[in-house]
Amino acid sequence: MWGIACARSRSREDQRHGKWGWISFLLSFFVLYQSAWMEGFSFSDGNRVGFVTKLSRRGYFFPTWEGELQLGGISPDGGGAVSAATWSFSVASDEVAEAIRKAMENGKRVQLHYKEFRARGWRWGSSDYNIVEVK
Question: Domain of 69: which CATH number?
Fold first, then answer.
């Protein structure tokens, strides 16, 4: 009887370790998968042209630059009305943000090359559109 009780306690202990082993494996797999997905795969990329009207640094732990680009133009109906549309973007690189800030201070029109991430990582900012280059 004592041998049966010891066998049962060992099997329960093994089950407990096995359960926590699987939980830690799945949690590690999920974290690595999410990190790879969020950091490496862009949904689309392209360029936007306009005047930067806002650029500010936001965030506590992983601060990013957040901005708005004024996409002005003449309405397509030929009436001569000016349409004012803004486009929000994020910048993770301080060097790119500095180039945008200089263009904004000089009132220059800029072309921003962006990558769109549908699944954002914690360091990419609050917008789906992340600026990677200024032309």
Answer: 2.40.50.140
